[in-house]
Amino acid sequence: MAIVKNFWLKNQTKKLAGAVIYQAMGQTRSRELAAEVSNPRTIDQMSQRVKWANLVNFYRANKSWMKFAFETKPTNRTDYNQFMSLNVANSRIYLAKGIANQGGCVVDSYVMTQGSLASIECVKQGNNWETNLFLTEGLEIVSTTTIAEVSQALIQSNPALREGDQLSFIRLTQQTNANTGVPFVVVRKYEVILNSSDLRFWGDFMPLDYITESDPVDNNRILVNNSGNAGGFLLILSRTTGGKTYVSTQSVIVANNEATIEAYSSQNALQAAIDSYGESTEPFLTSTTANQDSQAPVQPSIVSIAGDLGNAVPGQVFGPINIDTADEFIVTLSQTPTAAGAGSKVVLVKGGVESEVTITNANIQDGKLVLPWPSGAVTGEGYYVADIYAVADDTTYRAPFLVPNAAYNGGLE
What we know:
The chain is built from six helices and 24 strands. The protein has helices at 43-62, 79-87, 97-101, 147-157, 258-263, 267-276; strands at 2-3, 14-16, 19-24, 27-32, 111-113, 122-125, 128-134, 166-176, 183-193, 211-215, 219-224, 231-241, 244-247, 250-251, 253-255, 303-304, 311-312, 328-332, 345-350, 353-358, 364-365, 368-372, 384-392, 395-400.
């Protein structure tokens, strides 16, 4: 930012060369425009963008309780921007455009609060999660336990807690629309103010089927029960003093949601999300199959054909095959399959006409493909290898070879 004192630009708002002129605090200022992005749809850029959809929808589902979630955020930054900045780098959920537009959302281990109070730790114990919030030994939380009893037990046993602190329990239930298959989250909020004289029942403010204690006699701590529902939860400590709200730093504890996370964080999910927003300007030089299964290809390195032609590097054109007497040709791959599944073949081109030579187990000899010439061919003269398809375990691997137009016009002389 720079202050502009040019008389002719005073009170102006416009673009000028590589800068923008604008007005702020009674001054005429200028700032440099960001350099134009020459390729805004590269793979890396699109991969970043498709991360945002789940974060945006997740924030929307939770924003009603997040007004004071970020104690330490800069004064000029919104809660939304703070949430995004804390989570976008590690986000792994990719939503296709149609799912995102319908409010699709997957529960994951996002940072939801950030502050200076002691964090509430949750450690998996069997099927449940034991916290670091101690209770006075012998206290049993039941339907008739009062807020006063639990408050006194917590304050006496945990130096970080004070009278008037708030404990909040956020339950995030992962669900799927039965008609569309779109995942979404249901948010439930529970909170209680620690008050040693409050005779209301604890269970009226905290769900007793989720929040209980680990062992009232020997190791009494607040325990979060595993209900079996997919999703996650948070326990948050907050305190308001002198008009300022302080919070503990907490991330979502994922519960029974691993399968949904895996479904929307895979390479296939990333590719589907990118495809849904339109084709990238970067070419995909991968050997995926037509239905976009992401499979590792059989990579040919040096391919040689019987005769006096020598070797050809994949991607280059084979010279005319002038073999008058041979009734077969040999293709050598760096990874020759040990067995050829149905559909394995080599595609040859002569005079613009493609011919297919089927690969069977009998054609795999000493790590090479020993193949007959196409049916009806008198000699191999003028043929070019176009593609090799190898099928193994119901997966088709394709090794392409570039053939110029000349090859389709009768071969190169």
